[in-house]
């Protein structure tokens, strides 16, 4: 029988979705992330390559998008 009143501590929630980051990231570690996600479909071979990156794929994708946005002038800074 499942627990009728499950509780999750604040510490558990903090560790549940830890933010992966690259060492030389252009995104400061204290910048909050959006509540909503953006999802796109990729070509099959690119999708497979990104998925094979493991735990760092989210950090890598954030970094690529942030750097492109800075280079193309979509944003002036990441904050």
Gist of the model:
With 79 residues, this protein is an all-alpha fold. Helices cover 38% and strands 0% of the residues. The protein has three helices and no strands.
What does this protein structure show overall?
By secondary structure, this protein is mainly alpha-helical. It has a domain at 43-79. Helix content is 38%, strand content 0%. The protein has helices at 10-16, 44-51, 57-71. The mean pLDDT is 89.
Top keywords for this entry?
single chain; mainly alpha; 3 helices
Question: How are the secondary structure elements laid out?
Answer:
Blueprint: H1 10-16, H2 44-51, H3 57-71
Average predicted local confidence, pLDDT: 89
Residue runs with pLDDT of under 50 for 5 or more positions:
none
* Outline type: extended
For the record, give the distance between the C-alpha atoms at the N and C termini, rounded to a whole number: 46 Å
User: Could you say which structural class the secondary elements and strand pairing correspond to?
Assistant: mainly alpha
What is the CA-atom radius of gyration, in angstroms?
Answer: 16 Å
The major sheet is characterized as:
none
Summed up, the helix count is: 3
